[in-house]
Design a protein that fits this description.
With 474 residues, the protein is mostly helical. The strands form 5 sheets. A 3-stranded parallel β-sheet has the order 1-2-3. A 3-stranded antiparallel β-sheet has the order 4-5-8. The protein has a two-stranded antiparallel ribbon with strand order 6-7. It is elongated, with a radius of gyration of 32 Å. The protein starts with 10 loop residues before the first strand and ends with a helix. One of its GO terms (molecular function) is zinc ion binding. Belongs to the class-I aminoacyl-tRNA synthetase family. Glutamate--tRNA ligase type 1 subfamily.
Length: 474
């Protein structure tokens, strides 16, 4: 048994493989590691596990780093790249070999295939049978390729007091002698992870529970080297709303998709991920500061969480309403420009910022704000949507003409003055204010829904408002 890390300063790590974007499950793992480290005043480290050279790409590495930055998950020290440490991994494998905790295995691929077929036919667990464990290398043909395998303990049991899963026990007879170095001298993932965690001083390994079985095998290396065991916390995976394993149809996308395609705010995604499998009483809206103060592993549940896109969107709506208007305008402007096919100038951007207070209350994402803002920048004649066109049928044109005539006389183009003027129009027409506002909204925005009609008039200004009304008036 290795030494304890309980009394050391907390060090956590996030160790993604750059074979794709930062997916939502990985982002939650990163968040939990970040919060645990920050809560305890420790370090949060980032390691890119790029040993799979065929599948690791620079684009994926960039996407992971970009996603981390977007979620404000800053890491301490330099980013560690696993592939660059291959010589150190091999050094540890050879040290285990020299100490008698590992051995050279000369079993050929054909022999191992035959072994698996025999075990499958006998309905036995498929694991290496240790045929070179106690043999001398001199028995192998000269120059024959070999791998280095760990001498796993065969008797007794290995116990993990997992901070999330509780006490988990595996009989050592179930653990096989795993490969540490391949025949070409390259380290396996299982070896590299253990060596890197030790060298980086990681005290707490917080990761998905799909790695729980790996922990028992990795402890074999840790014990053989006499290293301190980390504290393990294996978090249940995220499932879809239907209880099935999370997939793309449930929303298992890269973090970049939540930002770019879905128009979500990072604080909303972060808050939602925090509540997927961790809780603090009945609190749903949790600021980053509160999360750092409250987060601990005791609050992580043992059951898989269910990803609910609707809840995430509703939470995003809350954060949109809380967001600074200037910041929102900066985020929305490119989406407006894409829809318009032109760039917004400084004046237009200022108008967009001024419109935020009216646009954001009902929006659940940045795209809804952008759609709602288009009327401000569209040129006459406005294209009407189907419902807006319906609102301009019948006697609407006459009503618009009456509204235009009264609005022309309004000197103080403000909400109170405009409200008084339109109430006068309704009174003169013997109808309610809503009956006036509907065709007016259609004429001013080309849509049947928009911010409040008085806000629309103020944002468009007197000249533009009257010109749009005149286009549809009798």
């Amino acid at each position: 048994m290795g030494a304890s890390v309980e009394t050391q300063p907390v060090v956590t790590r996030f160790a993604p493989s750059p074979t794709g974007f930062l997916h939502i499950g990985g982002a939650r793992t990163a968040l939990f590691n970040w919060l645990f480290a920050r809560h305890h005043g420790g370090k949060f480290l980032l390691r890119i596990e790029d040993t799979d050279r065929a599948r690791s790409t620079d684009d994926a590495i960039e996407a992971i780093l970009d996603g981390m930055k977007w979620l404000a998950l800053d890491w301490d020290d330099e980013t560690v790249y696993q592939f660059a440490r291959a010589a150190r991994h091999a050094e540890v494998a050879n040290a285990l070999l020299d100490a008698g905790h590992a051995y050279r295995c000369y079993a050929t691929p054909e022999e191992l295939t035959a072994l698996r077929e025999q075990q499958r036919a006998a309905k036995q667990p498929m694991r290496y049978d240790g045929r070179w464990r106690d043999r001398d290398s001199s028995e192998a043909p000269e120059g024959a390729p070999f791998v280095i395998r760990l001498k796993a303990p065969r008797d007794g049991e290995t116990v993990i007091e997992d901070r999330v899963q509780g006490r988990v026990v595996v009989q050592n007879s179930e653990l096989d002698d795993m490969i540490l170095l391949r025949s070409d001298g390259t380290p396996t993932y299982m070896l590299a992870v253990v060596v890197d965690d030790h060298d980086m001083g990681v005290t707490h390994v917080i990761r998905g529970d799909d790695h729980l079985n790996n922990a028992f095998r990795q402890l074999g290396i840790i014990h053989a080297m006499g290293w301190a065991e980390p504290v393990y916390a294996h978090i249940p995976l995220i499932h879809g709303a239907d209880g099935a394993k999370l997939s793309k149809r449930h929303g298992a996308l890269g973090v970049d998709a939540y930002r770019d395609e879905m128009g979500l705010l990072p604080e909303a995604v972060s808050n939602y991920l925090l509540r997927l499998g961790w809780g603090h009483g009945d609190d749903e809206i949790i600021s980053r500061e509160q999360a750092v103060e409250w987060f601990d592993l005791a609050g992580v549940g043992r059951s898989p969480s269910r990803f609910d896109l609707k809840k995430l969107e509703n939470l995003n709506g809350h954060y949109i309403r809380e967001a600074d208007d200037a910041r929102l305008a900066d985020l929305v402007a490119p989406r407006v420009e894409t829809r318009l096919g032109r760039t917004l100038d400084t004046e237009a951007r200022a108008l967009l910022a001024a419109a935020m207070a009216s646009l954001k209350p009902r929006a659940k994402n940045l795209d809804e704000i952008a759609e709602g803002a288009l009327f401000l920048f569209e040129t006459r004649p406005l294209t009407l949507d189907e419902k807006a066109a319906t609102l301009l049928e019948g006697g609407a044109a006459t009503l618009l003409a009456q509204a235009g005539a009264i609005l022309e006389t309004v000197a103080d183009w403000s909400v109170p003055a405009l409200e008084a003027a339109l109430r006068q129009v309704a009174e003169d027409a013997g109808t309610g204010l809503g009956k006036v506002a509907q065709p007016l909204r259609a004429a001013l925005t080309g849509r049947s829904t928009s911010p409040g009609i008085f806000d629309v008039l103020v944002l468009l200004g007197k000249e533009e408002s009257l010109a749009r009304i005149a286009e549809r008036a009798a």
